[in-house]
Amino acid sequence: MSIKVLLIEDEKNLADMIAFFLEEEGYITERVHHAREALHLFPRFLPDIVVTDLMLPETDGNDLVDAFRQHSTVPILMISASTMLNDRLRALHNGADDFLCKPFSLKELDARIKALLRRSAISYPDKPIKEDKPAEVVGHVSVNEYRRTLFVDGTEIEVTHIEFEIMKELYRNPGKVFTRNELMDRIKGSERAYLDRTIDVHISSLRKKIEPDPKNPRYIKTVWGTGYKYVI
Questions:
Q1: What would the DSSP string read from start to end of the chain?
Q2: For residue 46, how many other CB atoms are within 10 A of its CB?
Q3: Cα–Cα distance for residue pair 133/113, rounded to 1 Å
Q4: 169 — phi, psi (to 5°)?
Q5: CB 199 within 8 A of CB 193
Q6: Fold for domain 3-120?
Q7: Model-wide pTM > 0.70
Q8: Fold of the 141-230 domain
Q9: Pick from 149, 168, 188, 222: CA 20 to 30 A from residue 120's CA?
Q10: How much is the pLDDT for 50?
């Protein structure tokens, strides 16, 4: 099974170069230059991963990510010439799973795509698909690692792939206190690319999705000066 990449980049020469490289690497690539084209193509192409520029004609890449997140948890890699921390944080907070600053090496782009696909449990060619297993239930939250789904009181909740990885680690180890560095190591391994503060962004988003009162969390507790823990 070949991996399908939806590339949204308004710089035609750059889009052509990226698409050519990805196709040489064995990906099936569709490239578009506008958000409206991407939204039209998405349900027909059903990509395994989306690579989108932050600055697009007539819209902002964050708005496009938000539109995708209304109905999909597909991995999303944001690319941009911006090196501003606030732009990276906003993209991650809005649902992007990774952020790559221009100019970048095409080999790094390929490595980031593969890392996101590994974390989203998408099978590579010749790799067997895992059999589905029922979700295990521990209190308020249930997690199905094979389908990569999260349920709150029996209702499926849409989360980004990084949010799922954080929740999975907390869920597997109720009561264990994780430092931000430990969570980053568990999620990204040797490919850590963010500052610790981004863990706080993802935790804040998770709390909004699973906590009855996100401002007074019952399940994902802050351990001041250390990190976070999950309480059943």
A1: -PPEEEEE-S-HHHHHHHHHHHHHTT-EEEEESSHHHHHHHHHHH--SEEEEESEETTEEHHHHHHHHHTT----EEEEES---HHHHHHHHHHT-SEEEESS--HHHHHHHHHHHHHHTTPPPTTPPPPPP-PPEEETTEEEETTTTEEEETTEEE---HHHHHHHHHHHHSTTPPEEHHHHHHHHHGGG--S-THHHHHHHHHHHHHH-SSTTS-SSEEEETTTEEEE--
A2: 11
A3: 26
A4: -65, -45
A5: no
A6: Rossmann fold (3.40.50)
A7: no
A8: Arc Repressor Mutant, subunit A (1.10.10)
A9: 222
A10: 95
pLDDT in tens, 105-147: 999 999 999 988 887 764 334 433 333 444 444 457 888 776 6
Domain locations along the chain: 3-120, 141-230
**Residue 102 corresponds to which amino acid?**
K
